[in-house]
Specification:
alpha+beta; Thiamine-monophosphate kinase (chains A, B); Phosphoribosyl-aminoimidazole Synthetase, Chain A, domain 2; homodimer; kinase (chains A, B); ATP binding (chains A, B); 4-stranded mixed β-sheet; 7-stranded mixed β-sheet; 2 domains; 60s Ribosomal Protein L30, Chain: A
């Protein structure tokens, strides 16, 4: 990310975003008015520090230090019209979601996020006010997740496209992969499942309520800090639930070559999800078992080592029929499995 | 990147791309036919190894090890219609360019690239054949640059959008920043400037020649390996020329708080650039001095330490008039300076 401070560009008057304040007359109204370098300033000026960030935005690359010399990397792209809609989510919510979905991937490795880089692509007629709110949401969620914005790139595009790569590291307990689940382990969940999917079902039908599930669709709330907690407690495998609980447990099952059985009753049935099921004529367990985007953490633990804050929802078993499977109360799940971006 | 090998998906018949071979009847013709998981297989199956990649695609994050525990990170996004056009560049060229522009950023830090993650966003009606050629180009350039594809994410979008984050490390000589140029240093260049811009001028007017500049527009050729060579030789500041020689030297000047004078005569005037200038009625030095996208390396060195393969093109001086400036043969350059994505 280029950030030629002092190179003669007119400084954008707000070094930090102050949403709610009216845009002064004569200020740039759109990204095209603002220009690329001022946009970069708007995103990067006055960023909070992080003790493992050796060099932030402004050179050809950023530099972080990792404990043990090992760096974890994950990338997630959010595309307007696919992962969010500007008429359904505020700019601030989209900023928050951009960080949350990425931080969850690092948590799911039993690791801590350190820094992220943002590929910000947007149309020239996007309002500067939208960008200011987006940046505020991005920064707020960075603080929540304990991660620093360390660089990126801005470019023009027809649809807003937010490509984030996040970096992290682990302590000596090492990363928790998808492949370590063993027969006899317990399956446990931390965080919510089904809320975002229920929110999407409501929004798709033109409703803005129940508010709790609509907000869950707008901004996921991954259980920050629980990834490294699970690693320290001895988690044998872990994943974040982005595609749906059964689909994501399926990834653990196939990578670990085990069967997994989920106990439906252990999931509970939150009232707002039950109510969306009723209103839309959907079995509410479809939301719980196949809804993605809440970014809960699902992990397997040896018996006796499930940490506080986690709920046991199933068991790990030996593969019974050659191919690893995920069952619900001992039987195959008959409904949809998850989401395919190209179907 | 999810890669549920063994999870029951029908395997895509080509584990490695074999362009030129006709697509068998009944094979998927578009990404929508193929599906997300088969697309991920197509991109990731049989990837070459890299000794600093501890974990490649298939989990919530990839893992690399860095010399000295220090990881360099850079992100560049290529958007269809902005950075490439499918009617101007082949899929294989676009794959190669995607790697080259990113590897150049790591080279420009005096570092070596290790791994990259790819955010691949594309419309569902994109042909699988296009993707196979793209992946082949991507992999070929990875080999050239000495970098491994270690993960990523695929999603649907209206325009092809290629967001790459590349990671690297440096030896004990440490990174070379933009901020270290000192009065008395020499400015040296390694690689080509102006070729891609001349190619763009030709293509924009409907020409496919001179072939050399058109090809330079389609695939940049960063001088791989010269970044760490410059660092070892004692380079004090470095940048890759992506916005234009004067604009990028301007970044070094402002970060280092120095003046830079470029000696036009030292640049030479390649015949194809002269000929595009003539055909389009443009001063050909506009291409050399302000054309970006060739991703040459520009660096500053103490006298006597410029390594072989580098051409001295100017000098670093004390700031004469408060604000750092870049001049050409002692005078301000009157033409355009570079490229702003939102103007």
């Amino acid at each position: 990310m280029n950030n030629p401070a002092g190179s003669g560009h007119t400084p954008w008057p707000f070094s930090t975003p102050r949403p709610g304040e009216p845009v002064p007359a004569g200020s740039p109204q759109t990204l095209a008015d603002l220009g690329e370098f001022e946009l970069i300033d708007l995103i990067t000026k006055g960023l909070p520090q992080h003790d493992q960030v050796q060099l932030g935005p402004g050179d050809d690359a950023a530099i972080i230090t990792s404990r043990g010399g090992r760096t974890l990397i994950s990338l997630d792209t959010l595309v307007e019209g696919v992962h969010f809609r500007r008429d359904w989510s505020s700019a601030m919510d989209i900023g928050r979601k951009t960080v949350a979905v990425n931080a969850a991937d690092i948590e799911a490795m039993g690791a801590r996020p350190i820094g992220l880089v943002l590929g910000f692509s947007a149309p020239g007629d996007l309002s500067v006010t939208w960008v200011r709110y987006f940046v505020q949401g991005l920064r707020e969620e960075c603080v929540r997740a304990g991660v620093a914005l360390i660089g990126g790139d801005t470019t023009r595009s027809r649809d807003i496209t937010l490509a984030v790569t996040i970096l992290g590291d682990t302590g000596p307990e090492g990363p928790v992969l998808r492949s370590g689940a063993r027969p006899g382990d317990l399956v446990a969940l931390c965080g919510r499942v089904g809320w975002a999917a229920a929110g999407l079902a409501a929004l798709s039908r033109g409703f803005r309520m129940p508010k709790a599930v609509v907000e869950a669709q707008q901004v996921p709330q991954p259980p920050y800090g629980q990834g490294s907690r699970a690693a320290a407690a001895g988690a044998t495998a872990m994943i974040d639930v982005s595609d749906g609980l059964l689909a994501d447990l399926g990834h653990i099952a196939s990578r670990s070559h085990v069967d997994i059985d989920v106990h439906k009753g252990a999931l509970g049935m939150p009232e707002p999800i039950r109510s969306v099921g009723q209103a839309t004529g959907t079995d509410p367990y479809v939301f719980l078992l196949t809804g993605g985007e809440d970014h809960a953490l699902a992990a397997t633990f040896p018996p006796g080592s499930v940490p506080e804050g986690w709920t046991v929802i199933g068991t790990v078993q030996e593969v019974h029929d050659r191919r690893p499977t995920v069952t619900v109360d001992g039987r195959p799940w008959e409904g949809t499995q998850g989401y395919d971006h190209f179907h």
